[in-house]
Amino acid sequence: MIVIGISSGTSVDAIDAAAADLDLRPDGTLYLRPLGHAEYAWPDHLRRRILAALPPAAVDLGEVCQLDTLVGQEFGAAARSAVDDLAGGDADLVASHGQTLHHWVVAGRARGTLQLGNPAWIAERSRRPVVNDFRVADVAAGGQGAPLVSVLDALWLGHDGPAGAASTAALNVGGIANVTIVGSRDEPVLGWDTGPGNCLLDAAVQRLTGEPFDRDGELAAQGVVDREALDALLDDPYYALPVPRSTGRELYDGEYVGERLAAAGVRADRLSTPDLVATLVELTAATVARSIADHAPPGGVERVVISGGGARNPVLRDRLRALLPATTALVTADELGLPADGKEAYLFALLGFLGVHGVPGTAAGPHRRQATGARRPVVLGSLTPPTPLPLAAVRGPVRRLVLTTAPSPRTAPRDLAAPSHLTTPNHLTTPRGSIR
């Protein structure tokens, strides 16, 4: 099955898309062949409206309604382009994360979450069924609804050695940074949002220079970390919350840095732009490194696998290497075969595939909970249109994910062929009623 995954992060810098050819074998091994990923620019006027609607803004329902439609139309255009650009016109399903407008957390517990981008518009434009709204089911089951990437990390990076053998920390640095600690395939995984990734940094650069982000870390490289300001920013109760935990722009909004510094009696205007940017990079690196140290197994982690926009910031990578133990390697997801820039979009392609097959999109965590904190395994997402897809139910768990460059299962050797319900070409009904 070829799935187009689309997402847009809290920075609203672009719509990310990825095409994945997914093949589930009878032994529970899921092969993922990356077909490509791309970024599609938001129209400037719409990006400004989305950013203006993010916390702490007060937004009326008329604006929410319009954004839900306009974002859905833009996701639909991106999905349609991705079908042609990445999958050669041959895709079966679209999986859309949506644009997060609000993540409602009270006393460390997620109570609700809102992603805009109505799937009917995506289905109409792409002419493909759409799976969307992945987070709500997890929240309803007592989970944080974020980060959802733990299931990808667990299937992809879990090893076959004994329990307690070397672990991996999968780090994604988008607007918010999150980590998954993965050991052997039979061990529970732990996932949580560590705190700010790029969101505070990007907001400061945008406000002070007009640029959307610190390209190649040039400003940060010119600056010096202000220790007093850094200490004031690190003194936030969020970092002491138990895991799993989640956060978003509701906490780390455009006023956050100024308010935290003012409360600590630190004058923000005494920091030069490079010094402020260097300090915010240090904040991300320090909170990530401390969080991994606090929650890693007794032996620590053997490697940190970094993805997301922060993986392209050389200053952030250097600071992470300096703050992580000398025995911990820092590698990019690219080095292991998954594009660092496309990981989130591939995640939602995976979640869409799991959802339409009735397979939970959550990974087992500690204390008989899921990694997100949910009480039970949860099938994520809703299907538009609601007509059930003619797919046979998956028997047994999905045990691991293997990245491959092998041809589609439709041309695979007989002894490696996928189950018939995944190799039959006519296995999805499109919104226009024809059979693909």
Structural write-up:
- This protein has 436 residues and is α/β, with parallel strands linked by helices.
- It has two domains: 2-142 and 342-360 and 379-423, Nucleotidyltransferase, domain 5 (2-Layer Sandwich); 151-336, ATPase, nucleotide binding domain (Nucleotidyltransferase, domain 5).
- The chain is 33% helix and 21% strand.
- It is globular and about 65 Å long.
- Strands 1, 2, 3, 4, 5, 6, 12 and 13 form an eight-stranded mixed sheet that branches.
Summarize the entry for a quick read.
By secondary structure, the protein is an alpha/beta fold. It contains 13 helices and 13 strands. It has 2 domains: 2-142 and 342-360 and 379-423, ATPase, nucleotide binding domain (Nucleotidyltransferase, domain 5, 2-Layer Sandwich), CATH 3.30.420.40; 151-336, ATPase, nucleotide binding domain (Nucleotidyltransferase, domain 5), CATH 3.30.420.40.
